[in-house]
């Protein structure tokens, strides 16, 4: 850490790939700065170093002389970005072809997130409030309702929630409603309007807007694509081949949808059974992400 601080003072550009962000944070080089790391460890980074503006949505963050990236592939994205900055698009493109990777990747880490969370955060008293929220997603309530259940002011609740998860409570709540909509679109025959109501959205228009921002697709198109791929998955499982979707019905060619890591049986009203509340809360706290989230200073991953 002394060597890092000395190099930074001498004007070196410092890059932390994946969990390397923890080293930079421990050295004090990320204080007051935007940064990212692998989504699995972003809540821990945010809790351990509250002065760091952790944004788990980004593939990488360029804050000038200090840069950080998400996981292994995002480290390649960041290194290509550095080559592009120093030597131009042609050099970066040639290197990308040599590595057999795209020169630029769109989007961020959102599509890969599950609701994993360090165990020590899952034991926090706020987990009970999160469990209640998961059980009542089919009802219309807001962050003020959650703050009241936690016996906190809205400002205190926001600060406590963000310190635990690296995410604002409103971002988390919208994400959970979209995840619930995903499950219902995959497992039920409810219309899109009915799905919106069962996920606590005030209107189908609100569902469609948030769904498209988070998943890049309309609810109807998502359901159609999921069902078109499911028969292929069933055929692949039946003959023992590796084609189609893996066990659990996740469509082939796309990462496991966020939220599938929490095996929960849904009530017909869209809720989560009481016995699943605690484990679901421990698994769901770490959800950052909506496109409407407040911005963080610093250059972002390439659009």
Q: Can you offer a commentary on this structure?
A:
With 303 residues, the chain is mainly alpha-helical. The protein is built from 14 helices and five strands. It has a three-stranded mixed sheet. Helix 3 (42-48) packs across helix 9 (154-165). The longest helix has 20 residues, at 219-238. The two termini are 33 Å apart.
Oligomeric grouping of the chains: single chain
Relative helix content: 40-55%
Helix/strand/pairing class, anyone?
mainly alpha
**Average pLDDT taken over every residue:** 75
Low-pLDDT runs: 115-119, 235-303
In angstroms, what separates the terminal alpha carbons?
A: 33 Å
Total helical elements: 14
- Described by the principal axes of the CA atoms, the overall outline is flat
**Over the alpha carbons, how many angstroms does the gyration radius reach?**
21 Å
Brief digest:
The protein contains 14 helices and five strands. With 303 residues, it is mainly alpha-helical.
For the structure shown, list the relevant keywords.
303 residues; mainly alpha; 3-stranded mixed sheet; 14 helices; 5 strands; 5% strand; flat
Present the secondary structure layout.
Blueprint lengths: L1 H8 L4 E3 L3 H7 L7 E2 L6 H7 L4 E2 L5 E3 L3 E4 L2 H16 L1 H11 L19 H4 L3 H10 L7 H7 L4 H12 L3 H19 L4 H7 L5 H12 L3 H20 L38 H8 L19
Helix pairs in contact: 3-9, 4-5, 7-14, 8-9, 10-12, 10-13
């Amino acid at each position: 850490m002394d060597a890092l601080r000395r190099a930074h003072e001498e004007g070196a550009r410092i890059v932390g790939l994946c969990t390397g962000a923890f080293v930079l944070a421990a050295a004090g080089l990320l204080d007051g700065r935007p940064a990212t790391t692998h989504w699995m460890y972003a809540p821990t980074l945010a809790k351990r170093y509250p002065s760091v503006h952790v944004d788990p949505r980004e593939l990488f963050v360029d804050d000038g002389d200090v840069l950080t990236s998400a996981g292994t592939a995002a480290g390649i994205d960041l290194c290509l970005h550095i080559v592009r900055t120093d030597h131009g698009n042609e050099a970066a493109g040639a290197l990308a072809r040599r590595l057999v990777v795209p020169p630029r990747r769109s989007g961020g880490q959102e599509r890969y997130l599950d609701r994993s969370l360090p165990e020590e955060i899952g034991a926090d008293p706020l987990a009970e409030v999160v469990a209640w929220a998961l059980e009542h997603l089919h009802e219309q309530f807001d962050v003020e309702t959650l703050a009241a259940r936690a016996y906190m002011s809205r400002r205190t609740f926001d600060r406590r929630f963000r310190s635990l998860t690296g995410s604002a409570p409103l971002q988390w709540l919208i994400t959970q409603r979209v995840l619930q909509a995903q499950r219902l679109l995959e497992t039920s025959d409810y219309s899109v309007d009915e799905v919106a109501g069962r996920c606590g959205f005030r209107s189908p228009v609100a569902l469609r807007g948030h769904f498209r921002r988070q998943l890049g697709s309309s609810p109807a198109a998502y359901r159609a694509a999921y069902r078109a791929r499911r028969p292929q998955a069933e055929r692949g499982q039946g003959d023992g081949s590796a084609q189609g979707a893996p066990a659990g019905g996740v469509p082939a060619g796309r990462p496991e949808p966020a939220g599938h890591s929490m095996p929960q049986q849904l009530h017909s009203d869209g809720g989560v059974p009481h016995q699943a509340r605690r484990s679901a809360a421990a698994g769901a706290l770490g959800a950052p992400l909506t496109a409407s989230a407040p911005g963080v200073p610093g250059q972002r991953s390439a659009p």
